[in-house]
Amino acid sequence: MTRFLKRPFFERDTLTVAPELLGREIIFNNTKLKKKKGVIVEVEAYTKDDPACHASKGLTKRNEPMFGPGGYSYIYFIYGMYFCLNFVTEVNGVPGAVLIRALEVSGNEDERIASGPGKLCMYLNITKDYNKIDCCREDSPLVITKTNLLKDFSIVQTKRVGISHAKEHPWRWYVEDNKSVSKLIR
DNA sequence: TGCTGGATTATC
DNA sequence: ATAATCCAGCAA
Question: A131: helix, coil or strand?
Fold first, then answer.
């Protein structure tokens, strides 16, 4: 028994896994800094046949974690200044990932301190050092709880954010009326 | 070896 | 609406 999500949870269809992450808690223990955590309130799915997915054109140095087993982290650097956190889905050999777009942080924090993929990595102190780590290990510094911390919430499904391709999939899910979601618009 | 644009954010 | 800021990916 364990408190945290394990490999079988992640090694399923990306579009199934993504919305199931809503309400669960990410716990990140950067050993040199303060332990941080937050409840997932917004996610997006990226699959292999999708032009917007980093893995759509095959294996490269950057997207390599996406091709490995589910339950690993995939962290990339974007716009010269931000990191984005993903959890790898699908079995070994099949690329796929869920981008974590927003966390609700309890306590005295600003409710929008982690309301965006770049902001949440700054809040958690996540960097490339934690790329491709196995989040299913019991001693992993980065884990997700099995328990859902939100109750009686509704899920809204919409188009993804920041995708410039003509055809776009409705593969963004967020907790309805949650103050920590990245964008207020639909 | 050089160029381009991006799964973003804060500010104007 | 646009600057900040840099590197992966691709063309050559």
Answer: coil
Cα dist from A133 to A36, A65, A129, A137, A157, whole Å? 17, 9, 9, 9, 29
Q: Name the nucleotide with the smallest C1'–CA separation from A59.
A: C9
Q: Determine the nucleotide nearest to A58 by Cα–C1' distance.
A: C9
- Tell me the HSE value of A152 on the side-chain side, using a 13 A CA sphere: 0
| Closest among A12, A77, A76 to A45, alpha carbons compared | A12
For residue A85, the cross-strand partners are: A75
Tell if A57 CB is < 7 Å from nucleic strand C. yes
Q: Are A144 and A24 in contact (CB under 8 A)?
A: yes
The CATH number of A7-175 is 3.10.300.10
| CB of A4 within 7 Å of some strand B atom | no
Rounded to an integer, the average pLDDT of A33-37 is: 96
Q: What is the mean pLDDT of chain A?
A: 95
Residue-wise pLDDT tens digits, A110-165? 999 999 999 999 999 999 999 999 999 999 999 999 999 999 999 999 999 999 77
Among A111, A125, A123, smallest CA distance to A181 is for A111
